[in-house]
Amino acid sequence: MPEKRTIQRARKDARDGKAPSTQAGEFVREEMDHIREGKHGARSTKQAIAIGLSKARRAGVKLGPPKSGTTSKQTSTRTREQAERDSAKGRSGGAKKVSAKRSRAALGALKKEGHSAASHAALSKQARSAAARRAG
């Protein structure tokens, strides 16, 4: 569940007419903070960003699913479908009971991961590689 402060920031961005990606950035920032604080880890920077985007979609940010890739590292169908499910959950607004066992297992798995995914160096490397892919 995202923090109230994060949701407020994202809503303010929406009111100001900012792009959905800017609104979602608040959730990604929160995720990076959680990793740095030691609440949990992430296998990679890409995974940390994905968790933040998923939270944003579930919070109602109008962020579409990723485009199916045309490069060698194609966006999997599974990823797209999950993003669509997250968006649907954000639209419905209905808080369905979440499985405590599943939540605990997911958090337990993330706690075993490292914390370097949210380092400045890792974020910089991820941003550079993403920019390079866009420039092509």
Task: Spell out the key features of this protein.
136 residues; mainly alpha; 6 helices
Commentary on this structure:
The protein has 6 helices and no strands. The protein is globular. The model has no long low-confidence stretch (mean pLDDT 91). The longest helix is centred in the N-terminal third of the chain and has 18 residues. The protein has 136 residues and is an all-alpha fold. It is 65% helix and 0% strand. The protein has one domain.
Shape: globular
Q: Approximately how much helix is present in the residues?
A: 55-70%
> What is the count of structural domains?
1
Provide the low-confidence segments as ranges: none
Mean pLDDT level? 91
Main sheet attributes: strand count, strand direction, barrel closure: none
Topology diagram in text:
Layout lengths: L3 H12 L4 H18 L7 H14 L18 H16 L7 H12 L8 H16 L1
Task: Provide a concise account of the structure shown.
The protein is an all-alpha fold.
